[in-house]
## 1
Amino acid sequence: MRRRDHGLLTNASSLLICGLLAGVVVAAAAFPAAAISGLAAKAGAETFDKLPTELTVQRSPQISYAYASDGKTLIAMLYDENRRDIPLDQMSDNMQKAIIAAEDQNFFHHNGVDLKGIARAFVANHNAGETEQGASTLTMQYVRMAISYSARTPQEVVDATEDTNARKLREIRYAMAVEKRLTKQQILERYLNIAPFGNGAYGVFAASQVYFNKPPKDLTVPEAALLAGLVKAPSAFDPTDPAKRPDALDRRNWVIDQMAKTGAISRAEADAAKQTEIKVSGKRAPNGCTSQLTAPKWGFFCDYLTRWWLEQETFGANSYDRERRLKSGGYKIITSLDLKIQAAAQKHIDKIVKADNPDALMVAAVEPGTGRVQALAVNRHFKLDSRTNPQNKLSSDPKKRSKGVRGSRPNTTNPLLTGGGDVDGYQAGSTFKLFTMIAALENGYPLSYTINAQDRYVSRIPVEEGGPASCGHFYCVENANPSWMRGPRNMWTGFGRSVNTYFVPLEERVGPEKAVDVAKRLGIQFRSSLDAQYAGSKQAAHGWGAFTLGVSQTTPLDLANAYATIAADGKYCSPTPVREILDTFTNQKLDVANPSCHQAIDKDVARAAVDAARCPVGDQSAFGKCNGGTAANVHGIVKKPVFGKSGTTDSNRTAAFVAGTKQVVVGGILADPDWAQTTQLRQNVGGRDIHGQVVNKAVYETLADAVRDLPAEEFAPPPEKLAFGDQRSIPDVTCKPVDDARARLRGAGFDPEVSSNPERSNCPAGTVARTDPSGRTVKGGIVVVYVSSGPGAPPPGPGPTKPSRGVTLCPPVCRDN
């Protein structure tokens, strides 16, 4: 309740007396002999009357709290100053009475200025020749701290705290104005929330946690007295310093005596309180992503949250302003971190690869349709390596190792999973075939589009002669498992078996620049300078023949989110670490936490891509067209409708795998962050299959745990036109001369190719044994003609393949997996 109104006469008298006292103070400071000069007093009153009365108060810095997606589990505290404002009713009466007894015993009996105290202090200090006694009321102290927190320049901070008469006069003027606007209870609440208590604690909430590990409403008399005694000089009375503990005890006991003097407690209560031993049981609040609260389980996610925040224009014009908002804004942040998925990912990673392994096994999980990042896990410790006692191993990069440079294992704060800074990402291999497939679907090629996959394929895409994947002046490629991959392939079987010699010619026909464009729309960042150069223009991208094989660098998060986009029927959502952000000052939820989504590709195209992507992981397309998969065991483990893709780069330098359902998509990459060109990936993981036993296992086990208790959601099938296109009947050319068969097929609207491998059949040798496909296929599609070797006689061994489209074989030295 507001104290009694003193009336206009009382307030006017206070102003007059303060003005006169101000004149005395100023005069005494400048001209001691003229301390009681009426002229000086008159001048002081006029100056005082012109001082401003409107105190602009900026909110003092507050801790921002980040919680997991359950809204209950605290995963990080982020602050510049350890402070949390709380209402007065959450502060014990002991604390309120103690601070009044220690700092302003007349608090409830003045208008912000203790006139008797000012006069008494002036006389005492004048007689002593220096400042020995203060006269600042709680209100004046609050004003001083509020001005300091509202300062916008270093000079304004100095002006707010320097020991000058001008500052004191300004505080008096503001204090009287504050007392008119606020009740005593409101002033006391604000004072206890802003005051410094030492050891990084600002405000009574932080102080009670730091020193006693309890909420302020539970503070006892001796505990409250100890805290109240700290405000005058937190460092001098620090109870955590053994050398200063006696002074802290004396100061506490003095406050207890003052509480008895003011009647806040009885003499007996005071005597009992003074006998209580000082027990400091709390500790500094954890702060930041490397704190013990956060780093062991959630450090990399916390770092991603921080980096995401610094990119949001909502929080300021530049990264400095945005960081200040994060660490002083007092936000309640409900993150997207799913504790169950995070724990599963970390568990499965730790079972497979240890933290000191050169290779990082990185796993990210994303929710389709929102972009919410549910997990970020890796076999590394999120911490800075000690400079004085380093734990990190020497870099696996031979050049750096020879110079004694240490690598990023087991300790690092690099954003390994999300990219940024010096982390451009890692090659993800054949997972990038997805982008070529989508580009083909967008340009009229149906899932059933057939290409006769050779063991090796020489494209018409020019490259520098003599390169590792060049055949003369052209880019060429071969398959990792020729016998399992060769022959007529469509998107279902080409994607399922990861047939390089299907996807490179498909990319060539669609245009590599269109595949790159799809990747951009699905969130691939192209962070490295070389990747950015290729992706920077259509002309440059047009010559990027190897793009479909995943030579561009990406991160587990971007890869998972790209696949999550097609699981969400083509709706791309920017990856986000938050579900909700509450401004506790205004009690308003911020829109920046809402998913930021748009339709990146057509819904039906996305559904067609998912239909083919069910093949690699052992699921079945809506049309039953899957036939073989590179990770065919996944469906049986996840036990839900699932899609995904594996990928490996040259010489097993990296391995990647993505798998997902309608609810969760998990992406993983195994790579050496310190040496991108390593050829020791398999050796580093003990000779194990880097897919089946390492990256695939970490991903599908995490996915299985994530969806175990979720209902199965079926993928919607694509329209038949996207699956099969404009279907036409294939003429029966069995036993016809080859040239006649080719002409007839071409006339029917197909693209015939003649296989170089003869087949035994009942047709005369040299005629057509069969076609693949037969019956019906898409208009314009390839029909492979197999030549008969005649009945009975075994076909001759395969000679050089001579496709009828003017394509020649790449010599054995050209290989790109």
## 2
Amino acid sequence: MAYVLDFEQIDSANIADVGGKGVHLAELSRIDGVHVPDGFCVTTDAFRRVVAETPSIDARLDRLSRVEPDDHAAIRTLSADIRQVIENVPMPGDVAAAIGESLARHGEHASYAVRSSATAEDLPAASFAGQQDSYLNIAGLAEILRHVRRCWASLFTERAVAYRRRNGFDHRKVRMAVVVQRMVFPDAAGVLFTADPVTSNRKIATVEAGWGLGEALVSGLVSGDVYTVRDDQVVTRAIAAKSRSVQASPDGGTRDAPVEPGRQTRPALTDAQVVRLVRLGRRIEAHFGRPQDIEWCLTGDEFHIVQSRPITTLFPIPASDDRDNHVYVSVGHQQMMTDAIKPLGLSLWQMTTPRPMHEAGGRLFVDVAPLLASAAGRAQLLGTLGKSDPLIRDALQAILDRGDFIRPLPEGDSGAMPIGGPAATPIETDPAIVTELIRRNEESVAILRREIRGRSGPELLDFILADIAELKRLLFDPRSIQVIMAGMEAAWWLNDHLDEWLGEKNAADVLTQSVPHNVTSEMGLALLDVADVIRPHADVVAFLQRVADEGRDGDGFLDELTGLPGGREARDAIRGYLDTYGMRCTGEIDITRTRWSERPVTLLPAILGNVRNFEPGAAKRRFEQGLRESREKERELLERLRALPDGEGKAAETKRMIDRVRTFAGYREYPKYGMVSRYFVYKQALLEEAGRLVRSGVLHARDDIYFLRFEELRDVVRTGHVDPGLIRERREAFRTYEALTPPRIITSDGEAIIGEYRRDDVPPGALPGLPVSAGTVEGRARVVLDMARAELEAGDILVTTYTDPSWTPLFVTAAGLVTEVGGLMTHGAVIAREYGLPAVVGVERATRLIRDGQRIRVHGTDGYVEILG
């Protein structure tokens, strides 16, 4: 058992022995041209030995593991107790001897930096930077041993414990090694980011520099000079007034010292030194294969690297096999699903869509650079996205305005394939067209359910692959696209012309309330009918509340209902609802997500909310009210139009468009419903196959299939062999992707382009967004990040990141809607208009800027949100 390893003895296989920092320093010391101060690591075996020989630590860890994550007082008390025990524990003699021998080799009278190196620290998945302690300018064996114990104890600072709880790390599985490294007493020191930490641009490096030890910058004692570098050129520099520095103390440790006035505004580095440092950083980045956060020191004219860790907050760049410039637009922001998607879900979605898509960070992107390069493609793209999401349009325009990223194509060259489907030709306003499209889809899904039964093995995978062609045929049926486009174009026509003729903004919002064939709005109203069945039975309501509070998995609780008065009727009502809508869930475009049918408890908060907030018959009344308001708005508008010059002609044309939008607008939600219905049939069959693979020992768990792409799963089913390491690797990668926020637009340089609302009509302090459903409402904000935990009361305003169809049951209770992601024709907007809810979408950081319980006012006509207090 080795208690000490020198840097030259360490490689990546020693991660469990010396932690991330130790491995990185050892790797750094072997990179040609990189100077790393000499040193060694006290291994995790030493830490493990001390914990094993101190039973009181183990008992305290047991108590810490049982503390609730939000019990800050208990965490603070227990953490302090554990630290005190570790700091005062006797150092085992053989451990102390091993450390003493290493000090003798490296210079027993020298000064050292003693730094923690936890086994979960500085890994690609999560940077623990600053979560444990470091001690500088420590000399002598006794002091080194004391500070090694202090580093061990720093594993249990309140901040480090809270960080592990938040990121899912087990306290017992995180071990502590300690780096002991020769001190460098620098003239200047600081931090180098090999990618821009603000924009994420991988081609721009940022250097921060100050006098003395780098701890002055890291601790926030002073602001340093800041340089940005691109292509070996310093492109910006901001020289700070550096009035303080951290220096080594003659008695050991460090001290805060003033900087003489003549040096305070002098640059800590020359431009030549900055460029040389960035070149060094690029060499380190190339070695580790990803952008780095590097701590450096400058002594004389020589740079020393004292630490390097991955920058874990950067969103990955979609892979490309060329060196061209690319502009990637997020698919998730169009689909109202910005969460990470597992590999099976990514591959199935790519098999479903006609456009080439690129993966990064568990999300999908479309490269629009070819469209931006042509005048026609540019106009079409900006026009379409301008209506849907002004933030994306503004970001694309910002790229074009630079003039150096997109190379224009010659006149007449249209670039790549256009967005959308084939050009829509006019169709007659005939409701029978919609009913026929729905009938065909329903019949096709029924045939799928019938024919997939009994299939298994390679036959099942081949059958699903063949059926995806049928799914695509239905999704991209030219007739279906014509209907969708006809409804959208009629709504645009009404909004444009009625604003021009009457000054009536967003008139189509009211005119499209309670339209026929909107399967998603019907789904929300149907849950009101379920509540009507449950409401009269107090025992059933109380039982369902207990089940909701417990968060039970599976649907076993439904059969338990039959023992209660009214329970059988309640069970049948819920099951009937699931038979029609149970394939839906949050993030439903990812086939791997848990469906309502698989976990019906997800619906209970919405059902119980409906029981509390509505009277019997609310669904019918709600629909009829929307219909009355729509007809009244139609009558009013036509009457006002007839009073205008050429009023009869304008009224007749408007009437034709109103009939058209009401005939076709509801259908827009149906194709996705049909797609998700098929996905659920596929999923049920694939999980049965996964169960067979588990029973035969091929897979460890059924959900292993979620971390295989469809073609990989076909191979596993065919061969009976799988790479367990690949599944483990992808599970770990998915956990890191879940913590990332995808940008609307990212370039091939890695730069996340942030669009802006360029408006002057928003009151000071208000949050701008896109108006998608007219009206103004004031109420209590309910910030909801998980539909299964939503508790809305009548009059509440729903504030969330995004909504897809699974959120519709909450819309019947909400008085208004605010989302961070969304567009004019995305789900939340369509259903908000259908239900008559004022709504503003695309409100950046809404869930962080608006606090749960605050009173807010939503201006759905003008597109902004006021926080009232």
## 3
Amino acid sequence: MRLAASHAKTGLYVRYIGLITLVAAAVGWIAAGGTVYGSERVEIIRDQWGIAHVYAESNAGLFFGAGYATAQDRMLQMELFRRKVAGRLAEVLGPEWLASDKLMRTLGLYRHAQRVVDHLSPETREALEAYAAGVNHYLTTEADNLNPAFARLGIVPEPWTPADSIAVWMRIAEYFDNSWKQEVNALRQREQQQAGGAGSSQGVLVIDDAAAVVEEQDFARTSPEVYRRLKSYPRATIEDDAWERVKASHAWAVSGEKTVTGKPLLESDPQITVTLPSLWYEIHLCGGDYNARGIGLAGAPGFLVGWNEHLAWGATALGSDGSDLFQERLSSTGDEYQWRGEWYPVQTRTEKILVKGAEPVIIEVKETRHGPLVDDFLAGRRPDEHFALHHALLQETTTSIEGLLAMMRARNWTEFTEALSRYRSPGLHVVYADVEGNIGYHTAAAIPIRRGVYGIPQVGWSGEEEWAGYIPFEELPHVLNPSRGFIASANHLPVGSWYPHILTIGTGGTGHNGRSWRLYELLEAGNSFSVEGFAEVHRDNINPIARDLVRLARILQERGLLSREAVAFLSRLDEWDGRLVTGSPEAALAETLLAAVHRSIRPEGETATLAARFGGGFAGVVFLLRTVLGEYERSGEIPLVAEVAAWLDRVLRQAAEQAPGRGQIATRPRRMAYQANLEGFPSLDPQADRLLPQFTTTAVDTIWSQLGNSYTQIVDLADIDNSRSFLPPGISEDPRSPHYFDQVDLWVKGETHPAPLSREAVLRYKESVTELEWHGLKTPATSKAATTGSVH
């Protein structure tokens, strides 16, 4: 009864606030010279998987419907995204989230999002304002039917704004770009090495050119003038920082020469832990300049991956670094900082953080020309050291949503890459295909051109290590119609050693990993791919690193070069077929082998020779295996046989020590916490938690890594309506919805459902129809739009 009363009070408040907001918007618009240009019917068709297909005549009407539909499905998740970036979690979740709030208030992401609104293009501003109006229309008309968790948590959702949408996208950009937290520790390690009289133990990055997504000759053919310019630049050298960035996903496309239809196929599999609800939100928008379908973040219109009538695109995480710490020299009082011989005042602001069940907390944020001082958030910092965070997110008065929306409208490679040039972060490998038969690839990111030593804090007081802008978009790695007939990205090397710029992607970007290597094997071998054939690639669970480690070990065993312990471990893999299958004793041993080999090639000690030749991490291991086994197949000889045998013997013995005993493989049911999201929240409603189903493959080192299979799209460029997708566990966050957990069977089986674009095909799967009436108020000079609406 108490919960129902609270819910009713929430509904009354939301309706009141929403009404005031809409009336104020309308009055303000008319006062500013806005004119009413009539009403428009907006239609939302829900298919049998609950996916919203929004239809409208105008762009503004379309995004009004998109905002409404997204709020229906994910309003609580949107609220949590917004509160995270604004530093307002402790207000509703308690003191445990105070540290998160302090960081977000210090970074000032939400404040910056509010500034970005004033710099939006007319098209993007119209879309974000109409989207916000749709969200607020939902809040006012469905206030009595909000997710019960709102009342349980004591959250009264405030009206949505364009700044909220910008902030939501900034959250995922910040999540994937936070290497600045490692820089002080890296500085301490460097100091220790220098104090000991030793040079860096990290070594120079070794590049496996054969693994590159973009081959040098293909880049030269695609963009000859840019290629000539790049070849004139000096090549930068960079040390292996031994820190692999956040990596997720695989995407690939094949040309018509390798398909049964003669037109390209494209698949995108964003890999990030599947949460309840999903991090991603799937929707189809048709009207105005758009007929596009794909996924983005609830609260931020714009598709990270998707397709329209003309083209499709997929994406994987690039792992680029768009932030640096700058070490500042402060005055004795801390009120001034030095830069180029002059002293400047430190800017300060006060932030008041409300805390549920406790007194408010006041913090003082200090900023220099480089950004906010983040001393309190850095491990390894000495008391007399001060560091400011210089982050591309806080330097740019634009939003990647600009680029995402333009990508959704694009009709060809030229329009698509122009749109992509407006995208900033997080860094992406983007795979492309179109109905004209083209396939392409382009990296997309705001990557600073650094003057100082990369990976450690820059010197802030001299002015000599300031960023020199960003790598020009046209100079980022790209290719159109590569000679190999396919493009595949699994967060691996984008471009070879000839490329002069530092892309800041670390060890994981110097060659292949297991997923990318396996994709290349499958795509090189196939010449008659279909949608069904792509589904088979999607479900592949062979790990070629472990497979070929075992193969190489058996060759060495035949030559008597392995110890008794290594041979004993190897014998336990006699029946293994290379697949990482959950519950398989052999597969568990193979995963133990992968863990042992991952960081086994080091630039110092017994593996120094191998590290200098092949590099480290999985990329180095793959480079070694491909080189050594390739030479063995050609000549019967094993290069560096003594060093390779000693290394692999040591890896096998370590794996043997860590391996589970016979009969010890067991799987326990795992619970999906409701609304864990990126933050790892504890369950916000234990009754809404669900048990994870039993999977075939949970290993992260395969293409079919089911725990991270957060979305799949397969786009048929010969017949767009033959495209397919799935979004586990379901589109809705509301446990009362039939679409809360309804795509789990597809998830378990590695299957997809139809995902058409044409209205005729969409109607075949129709489950329900909602009609909204949108009334637009428009200012011709600025193309701003305010809206009101009603549900029929």
